[in-house]
Structures are given as C-alpha cells and as structure tokens.
Specification:
Layout: H1 17-23, H2 47-50, E1 55-57, H3 58-61, H4 67-80, E2 83-87, H5 93-107, H6 111-114, E3 126-128, E4 143-150, H7 167-192, H8 197-205, E5 211-217, E6 239-244, E7 252-255, E8 258-261, E9 269-273, H9 275-280, E10 290-291, E11 295-299
Parallel strand pairs: 1-2
Antiparallel strand pairs: 2-9, 3-4, 4-5, 5-11, 6-9, 6-11, 7-8, 7-10
Family: Belongs to the iron/ascorbate-dependent oxidoreductase family.
GO molecular function: dioxygenase activity; metal ion binding
Protein name: Oxoglutarate/iron-dependent dioxygenase
C-alpha cells in the first residue's frame, strides 16, 4: 500500500530485454546493461546458512492463544530486518499458482500485444522499465509491468481495464486478497508498536492511499555477474507484499553491510516495511535495501 502523498514518477521508454534476448544470439551483455558501478563482491554466500530472514505465521498471529508470541516475532522482524516471510496467510495455493501462471503467460505474449501496454511519455505505469531518466543511464536486466489497482478511479484506462481475460479478473481477485492480508498485518504491527490500530490504519485509509501492482521479468543472461536485475533501493511506500513466481533465489537484502540471499518458502509472501512506515514512526522499524527477482510486487 502506498500511503497518502505518494510521489508521482515518470520513465523513458526503453527496449524490452526479453525481446532482445529472444531476437538475437547474445553472447555478451550490451554496454548499457553492464553495471560496473555495483559492488558484486559483498554478497555473503554463507550468511544464509547461519541465519535466514524471520518467518511470521499469519494463523498464529490471529490466534488468541499464540498472538502475543507471534506479535513479538513480528516486532523483531520489522525492527531488525525490515523483511519477513509470511506463511499460512489464508490465500489458497491453487489460486496463487493460477496467478503465477497467468503472469508468465502475460510476459510471453507477442511483443505487438505487449506494446499496447507500453509506458506513455511522462508516465511510469505500463510495460517497460522504472525510473529511466536519461538516454545514457545504466539499465536493469529486466522488464516490468506496473499499474495502479486501487482506487478504481486512478486506474489508467489503457492498462488494467484492457488486460486480457481471465488475467484481468485474476489480478482483481489477487489484489483484494492481498489487501486483506496487508490490513491484518498493519493492525498487528500497531499492536507490536503499542499504539492504537486506527493510528496506523489511517495512513492507508486516506483518500490518497493507493494500491499498485508491479510484475518483474528477468530473462536469461549470458553474463549474469555483469548485470543487476533491479537496482538496489528501498521501497518508498507503506508496505510491500512480494510473491515469487518461481523458486530461484534472486532476492537479496542488505543486513549489517552484507547482501543476504533469501530462500523463498513455498506459497509464502515476502513482506517489506516501506519508507513511509519508517518515517511515520521515527525509524522504529528499519528499511533494508534490496534487489528483486522474477516476482509480482503488490504495493499494498
């Protein structure tokens, strides 16, 4: 969820990485994608053996007998990591499989079909890349599709309403399900912070609150050590709920100066505390820089 006052962005349209890989026999990475500016030596391959990001059980979080202990775990996860994996969230696994399959089908559409959803001038929503502001800027090795889901009146008429069926209906339901999960988490975070739930919920109930969805696709790369799937960043929103389409260990978060790989659990969400919550509560909850992977972002 993006809280009230979320920033507006734009991005220059760039070629599709997926199509570039499909159409040409690429043996080396084009110069514009080579990221020598990123320190790739800081990934700690052994770190995840010693410790993994916290796991929060939604069922325990909502149970009267286990709530207090699980809220303590949630508090620790938010303060010390800014990330956690959420299990037993209540969304049916077969439905999530359907979402994942249809996301892959969308990215596999012919380019002529995907061009209908290309980013327009001075907009970031649509198919393309994020935050490209100049012609010589280094690019991520990825394609994305980003669009506003809620409120309905903020949907771009050429994007969500034009998505093919049943994909559009599937995303509509997915949006609703994840929003419900996010609201429960927000209420439990308020409990962890020992404040009234409505104080935290107000951030997300204002008329300017926005729920957005972002899907990232990372094509095969001949020199993966030379590229970045998504530039390191923190999320300038309230809460991010991530779902990974496959089991590739691509997500990394920065912990104590080291990039820590995340092992995704089956049917789990990965939840990130965004900048808005950090600022609102005077950095009680930390925000951790991270890179991303083949997944869907739900900015809920």
């Amino acid at each position: 969820m993006e809280a009230k006052g979320a920033a507006q962005w734009s991005s220059i349209l760039v070629p599709s990485v997926q199509e570039m890989v499909k159409e040409k026999t690429i043996t080396t990475v084009p110069p514009r994608y080579v990221r020598s500016d990123q320190d790739k030596t800081e990934v700690d391959d052994d770190f995840d053996v010693k410790i993994e990001i916290p796991i929060i059980d939604m069922k325990r979080l909502c149970s009267s007998t286990t709530m207090d202990s699980e809220v303590e775990k949630l508090d620790f996860a938010c303060k010390e990591w800014g990330f956690f994996q959420l299990v037993n969230h209540g969304i049916d696994s077969s439905f999530l499989d359907k979402v994942k399959s249809e996301i892959q089908d969308f990215f596999n559409l012919p380019m002529e079909e995907k061009k209908k959803f290309w980013q327009r001038p001075d907009e970031i929503e649509g198919f393309g890349q994020a935050f490209v502001v100049s012609g010589d800027q280094k690019l991520d090795w990825a394609d994305l599709f980003f669009h506003t889901v809620q409120p309905v009146e903020l949907r771009k008429p050429h994007l969500f309403p034009k998505l093919p069926l049943p994909f559009r209906d599937t995303l509509e339901m997915y949006s609703s399900e994840v929003q419900s999960v996010a609201k429960i988490l927000i209420a439990k975070m308020a409990r962890a912070l020992e404040i009234k739930p409505e104080e935290l919920e107000k951030l997300f109930d204002d008329v300017d609150s926005v729920q957005s969805m972002r899907m990232n696709y990372y094509p095969p790369c001949p020199q993966p050590d030379q590229v970045i799937g998504l530039t390191p960043h923190s999320d300038s929103v309230g809460l991010t709920v991530l779902m990974q389409v496959n089991d590739v260990e691509g997500l990394q978060i920065k912990k104590d100066g080291k990039w820590v790989p995340v092992k995704p659990l089956p049917n789990a969400f990965i939840v990130n505390i965004g900048d808005v919550l950090e600022v609102k509560f005077n950095q009680i909850h930390r925000v951790v820089d991270h890179c991303n992977f083949i997944m869907t972002f739900v900015w809920a």
